[in-house]
Design goal:
The longest helix has 18 residues, at about 75-90. The chain has 7 helices and 13 strands. The protein has 2 domains: about 20-235 and about 245-275, 4-Layer Sandwich (Purple Acid Phosphatase, chain A, domain 2); about 275-305, no CATH class. A 6-stranded mixed sheet has the order 4-5-6-7-9-8, with helices on one face. A 5-stranded mixed sheet has the order 3-2-1-12-13, with helices on one face. The chain has a two-stranded antiparallel sheet with strand order 10-11. It is of the alpha/beta class and about 300 residues long. It has helices spanning about 40-55, 75-90, 105-115, 150-160, 180-185, 190-200, 290-300, and strands at about 20-25, 60-65, 95-100, 125-130, 130-135, 170, 205-210, 215-220, 225, 235, 245, 250-260, 265-270.
């Protein structure tokens, strides 16, 4: 199934077969308490859902890569669920929840997955019209760093032993990437080489992560990695050395377009900013009605805008 707005695909690359929203680190507190007494997490997640509805395209899935609740409180999970699920239903999207270091497995299972509470790792496989999404629970109860145990790695190897028609995306909280932030180096995913041995040479096309609270990209075992920033607060990556500082701003999510030959991650900032009318003549609206030659003359010519 091709995912694109009707009549709006005019580029040389084929349209995506799948379109996903990648959201991370919502970090709700119970009782609608603001995070760090300052961040209105409910408002920011609601803004993300509003923007997805405004975007107007159907989505195959919304993937939430961990730290759904800050303290693992049941009420926090329920509020996230109640904000997300109506938008997901409107856009036809599957919701894929991934565990993070702030989450608690029992409440996570009960409130988000609507399944019996257990403390076992929450590892799952979801098929989206031939695209396989594997969610990995990298959390270590009682700690902020990440790790995958032997049983999880064996399970993943078994899943990846048979390719999926459109390949596989790994969704995990702790991204297998270097970070310039000293604090995040302490609480990164440990023993990443063991995961690399499982992933290398398989049909994994991209790894989606969170945890860092800033957008980042890299490669791991030959596979592209994309980190969605956060909908709660972001980290100041240019803070002075020896200081770890956050912003109540620059929140963002990613749109993930799965094409036949590549996976594209597009950062979508959250907020109602001052508009700049860069298309006063409404040229974008007529693009589908033009021939390829007319598009070059009406859109590409420097004196046409």
């Amino acid at each position: 199934m091709v995912r694109t707005l009707p009549g709006m695909h005019v580029g040389q690359h084929p349209p995506p077969s799948h379109l996903l929203a990648h959201v991370s680190d919502t970090q709700f507190l119970g009782g609608r308490r603001p995070l760090y007494d300052r961040v209105d997490t409910d408002r920011l997640l609601s803004q993300a859902m509003l923007q997805l509805e405004r975007y107007g395209s159907r989505l195959d899935a919304m993937i939430f890569t961990g730290d759904i609740a800050d303290l693992g409180e049941p009420d926090a999970y329920r509020r996230v669920r109640d904000i997300v699920e109506p938008t997901a239903a409107l856009l036809g999207a599957e919701v894929i929840w991934v565990m993070g270091n702030h989450d608690e497995r029992s409440a996570f299972r009960t409130e988000l997955l609507r399944s019996p509470p257990t403390t076992e790792p929450v590892d799952r496989v979801v098929m989206l019209n031939g695209l396989r999404v594997v969610s990995l629970d990298t959390s270590v109860p009682g700690y902020h760093h990440g790790r995958l145990d032997d049983a999880q790695l064996d399970w993943l190897a078994g899943v990846l032993s048979r390719p999926a028609p459109h390949g596989t995306l790994l969704a995990m909280h702790h991204p297998p990437l270097p970070t310039p932030m000293p604090v995040m180096q302490v609480i990164e995913l440990l023993e990443q080489d063991r995961l690399a041995d499982v992933v290398r040479g398989t049909d994994v096309r991209a790894v989606l992560g969170g945890h860092l609270h800033y957008s980042s990209t890299g490669t791991f075992a030959g596979v592209p990695v994309s980190v969605a920033a956060s909908t709660c607060y972001t980290v100041d990556t240019t803070a002075p050395v020896r200081r770890h500082a956050g912003w109540n701003g620059a929140q963002a999510m990613n749109l993930v377009s799965v094409h036949p030959d590549q996976v594209v991650h597009t950062v979508a900032p959250l907020g109602a900013f001052e508009p700049v009318d860069v298309d006063p003549d409404g040229l974008v609206g007529i693009v589908p009605d033009l021939t390829s030659e007319q598009r070059i003359e009406r859109i590409s010519r420097r004196d046409a805008w």
